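**Paired protein data**
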Amino acid sequence: ETCWISQASAEQRRGRVGRTGIGYCYRLYSQALLAKLEPHRPPDTRVLPLHHTLLQLARIGVRDLAWFPFPAPPPQEQLIETLEHLRRLGALRRTDAAWSPTKLGAALAALPVTPRIGKILLEAAALGMALPGVAVVAALEAEELVEARAKPRRNDEAEKDPNRIEVVSSRVSDLVTEANLLGDFLAQTGEFLPSADGSLVFRPKTALEVAARGWAPPRGVRAKALVEATRLMGQLAQLLSSAAADPETMRADFEKLTGRFPLPPPEEAALGRLVARASPTQIIRRRELLQDGR
């Protein structure tokens, strides 16, 4: 998100420009606008998500999380909302006024990803679905893979392009469809192989781009988004492998690439449930809107 800097940051940048000698600094906005900027950038505790910070505090034994003496306290409403979100996620438990991490919460605190993403990865790995879990998270975090005009329409009787390869649409969600596409791309192009430590390695980005330019267009897939999602899969897989209690089992799951995608219906359904369980706040909000008739 693009936003205005503070007056202090503007002054700091002016000083950086003149650090090698005397000169002029031209700002591409007026003095009147500069005067309207905030004097200083708000503290991170007031503008950034607190989920990981609270999990880290809980892991080191802080129990009174709702009243922790932050140097710059966040809004109390935001703090309570975050704690409740982590409770619904299964990462924290509450006993009276004390908060403590669950086994899942302790594992999430050790991962440098959002709790939502971490929960999907860890629970997928526990089900022996580490590779599908990595694929669905990459699809969730990357740009939309399938071009709008190419999205499958189940009852479309229009004449088909002879060069078009039809995308198999998941009955669970478009997100699972995109996870299937990622897995299919890796299996067919051979760009993605497990390494000795169970992580995933692939050719340099340029080689991926060449493969994607040939594979993506007939399927109505954006080649650039495909490359970025594939690289993200590798990073997530390495992260998950480093956190695995049983690297050998993880490696065995990653080796099951050929013929793995598209996923069979039971695995698609399980993947959809994993994503839903990692999004309790969104599901509750949607239920409230449906009950209100919106």
Summary: Confidence is low (pLDDT under 50) at residues 284-290. Strands lie at 92-95, 98-101, 192-194, 200-202.
